[in-house]
Amino acid sequence: MKQIDLIKLGFERVDQTPESSGSDGPWHYYCKDVGEICFLSSESDTDEAKKDKWSVNILESNVIFHKMSELKTVIALLEKNKI
């Protein structure tokens, strides 16, 4: 998945500074909530993200998405059926 794919799916960018995160440099990730389900992208400082190959997981689970088409389908189903 590319960074632009996350933006098109409605993910919001969250920027982190070295001061707030204790890291060596600034970095960012993307998040999207659907109901009570939180989707989080990989962090911008990972090797894969640097190659514009982002992944997304569901918070507090071991579910991870690598393909935009699959993530888009799951998000659409959840949004359609949320209360």
Quick summary of this structure?
Helices cover 34% and strands 28% of the residues.
Give structural notes:
The chain has helices spanning 3-8, 18-21, 47-50, 68-81, and strands at 12-16, 27-34, 37-41, 56-58, 64-65. It has 83 residues and is of the alpha+beta class. The protein has one domain (3-81). The chain has a 5-stranded antiparallel β-sheet. β2 and β3 form a beta hairpin. The longest helix is centred in the C-terminal third of the chain and has 14 residues, at 68-81. 16% of the residues are buried.
Which terms summarize this structure?
single chain; 83 residues; alpha+beta; five-stranded antiparallel β-sheet; 5 strands
Going across the biggest sheet, name each strand in turn: 1-2-3-4-5
The helicity comes to 25-40%
> Spans with pLDDT under 50 lasting ≥5 residues?
none
Number of strands: 5
Q: Tell me the number of helical segments per DSSP (H or I, 4 or more residues long).
A: 4
Number of domains: 1
Counting copies of identical and different chains, the oligomeric state is single chain
Overall mean pLDDT? 93
- What is the CA-CA span between the terminal residues? 29 Å
Specify the biggest β-sheet.
5 strands, antiparallel
| SS-based class | alpha+beta
Taken from the alpha-carbon principal axes, the silhouette is globular
Instruction: Using the CA coordinates, give the radius of gyration.
Output: 13 Å
Give the percentage of residues in beta strands. 25-35%
Please write the string of helix (H) and strand (E) elements. HEHEEHEEH
